[in-house]
Amino acid sequence: MHRKSTRGRKIRRRSNVFSRNTRRKDILKVIGFAVLAAAIVFSGFFAAKFINEGSLPVSDPTSKPLKTSTDTTRQPTKTTETKPKGTNSTKSLRAFYLPALNLETNDLLFDDAADAGFNAVVFDLKSEDGVLYYQSTTELSEKSKATADNALTLNQLNSLKKQLQDKGITPIPRLYAFRDSVSPSNIPTAKILLKDYPGYTWLDNSREKGGKPWLNPYAPDAHSYIIGLAEEISGIGFSKIIVDGVQFPNQTSRAYYGESNLISLSKQEVLKKFINDMKTAVGSNCEIIHSMPGLPVFKDGTEPFGGNPVTLGADTIAPQLLPSMLGKNLKAGEATLGDPSSNPSDAIELAAGQVKLRLELIEETKRPSVMPWLQAFDYTADQINGQINATAKILGNDAPYILYNPNGVYDFKVIKQR
């Protein structure tokens, strides 16, 4: 928070002789100011539960540097790589997720992954909390002050991309969009404000309960910030980008979105515009993959998206079908599965089947491809392989998917891609 400096005012000394009327007026003024101050303190206390006035950390001071190159320049490396239009299909991609801090070249990990049939890796370049893991040169990214201390330069990022491609691994960076707890503090034109207190930052819960700010889906600068990142990384040759957090907060009590030219759009319309504008910005040589929670695709929880998120216009959707995130009882159509997390392959088969049915309601020429997230933590190799087989059974043998372990730990010698 930027604090305005205050300076003491000069006081002109006057005669010590005052009339009674003047004294009475002064006393009334003092009483009036005291009442006003008390009201301000009370309202400020009331509003404090819903606002954020402090800056947020932008990086983990304990994180280790990424080892990819000694180059520390911030200038992007222009690429001359071009691909014919229509070659960006996710068909047959078998991907796994790695945290940003595990991106250093690991020959054994990638060799084992390739031997097991995996050919793509997903990693965050803008994380769920808003931290940037590469040194973007866009104006709004620099304004956001969200870049991690050990972030890759664009040249390092380009070098990493080429190293992965040489191993037969397609690199797929992920960008979180409006779910962002760092940049709203530094880009005031891009944040959600507090209703009735438009000078304050809105939080998705009280500060005592860990409430966080969000980028404003109705703010043009929020759109420009994220789309600018996508355009920048597609410009150095990434053929696929996952965008996540394309939604409104789950609860929006007392949220104020401002008065931009986007405010006349519905939630669904403004999110669809964001996706389509991003597709236009990255061009035909880069595919946008839209990641989303699984349940809103075929069950409930569509309010943050203004409708079903599969209709927002991405080329490919990546529903998060992690069994542990599918609730205590998975009800889909006439079928019910108790405790999905204990029955991972059955959970994937049921959930993927419902996703497929939902997509069949969309005109075939506008129907996105499906690349589900599968759970690779808290499960044995057999249970992970069971999810992979269930995906192939419902979505086809060439169906792409992403294995997810937040720690990036996989035993590829016992995990097979099908």
Care to describe what's here?
- The protein has nine helices and 17 strands.
- With 418 residues, it is α/β, with parallel strands linked by helices.
- It has a domain at 73-183 and 230-245 and 263-404: Glycosidases (TIM Barrel, Alpha-Beta Barrel).
- The longest helix is centred in the N-terminal third of the chain and has 28 residues, at 20-47.
- Helix 5 (220-234) packs parallel to helix 6 and helix 8 runs parallel beside helix 9.
- Strands 15-12-11-9-6-3-2-17-16 form a nine-stranded parallel beta sheet. A four-stranded antiparallel beta sheet has the order 1-8-7-10, with no helix packed on it. Strands 4-5 form a two-stranded parallel sheet.
List the helices and strands and how they pair.
Blueprint (H helix, E strand, L loop, with lengths): L19 H28 L3 E2 L41 E5 L8 H9 L4 E7 L5 E3 L4 H6 L2 E6 L1 H13 L3 E7 L16 E2 L2 E6 L17 H15 L5 E5 L10 E2 L10 H16 L4 E7 L1 H4 L17 E5 L8 E4 L2 E4 L5 H16 L9 E2 L2 E3 L5 H15 L5 E4 L14
Parallel strand pairs: 2-3, 2-17, 3-6, 4-5, 6-9, 9-11, 11-12, 12-15, 16-17
Antiparallel strand pairs: 1-8, 7-8, 7-10, 13-14
Helix pairs in contact: 5-6, 8-9
Give the oligomeric state.
single chain
CATH architecture of one domain: Alpha-Beta Barrel
For the record, what is the CATH homologous superfamily label of one domain?
Glycosidases
Main pleated-sheet profile: 9 strands, parallel
Poorly predicted residue ranges: 1-49, 51-87
| Strand coverage percent | 15-25%
Class based on secondary structure composition and strand pairing: alpha/beta
**CATH fold-level name of one domain:** TIM Barrel
Name the shape in a single word.
globular
Q: Numbering strands along the chain, what is their spatial order in the largest sheet?
A: 15-12-11-9-6-3-2-17-16
Helix content: 25-40%
For the record, the CATH class of one domain is Alpha Beta
DSSP, total strands: 17
- End-to-end Cα distance: 52 Å
Please give the radius of gyration in angstroms: 26 Å
Number of helices: 9
The sequence of SSEs as H and E is: HEEHEEHEHEEEHEEHEHEEEHEEHE
Averaged pLDDT, please?
A: 83
